[in-house]
Design brief:
This protein is 12% helix and 22% strand. With 83 residues, it is of the alpha+beta class. The protein has a domain of 51 residues: Pemi-like Protein 1, Chain: D. The protein has a two-stranded antiparallel ribbon with strand order 1-2. A two-stranded antiparallel sheet has the order 3-4. The radius of gyration is 25 Å and the shape is elongated. The mean pLDDT is 85.
């Protein structure tokens, strides 16, 4: 995406900038999402503060517990089931 100019505007007692919809869509941002701001060498960098959703494989990649599976099935009534 090319560079674009943003204008600082007054918002109540604060100031703010508006992000173009193209940027919001490109970064999959929505209203209410948080951004991390870094100021360095006279530059401002905004980074989405989103935690990426991990896949099942990633979640269990370092799991070292038991892996034995067994199917548990019972036709016994345990509540107020109606058949």
């Amino acid at each position: 995406m090319s560079n674009s100019s943003l204008k600082i505007t007054k918002w109540g007692n604060s100031q703010g900038i508006r992000l173009p919809m193209a940027v919001m869509e490109l970064l999959s941002l929505k209203t209410g999402d948080e951004l991390q701001m870094t100021v360095e060498n006279n530059s401002i960098t905004l980074t989405p503060n989103k935690k990426r959703r991990m896949s099942i494989a990633e979640r269990f990649a370092n799991y070292e517990g038991p892996t034995q599976q067994e199917e548990i099935w019972s036709d016994e009534v345990v509540g107020k089931e109606v058949f």
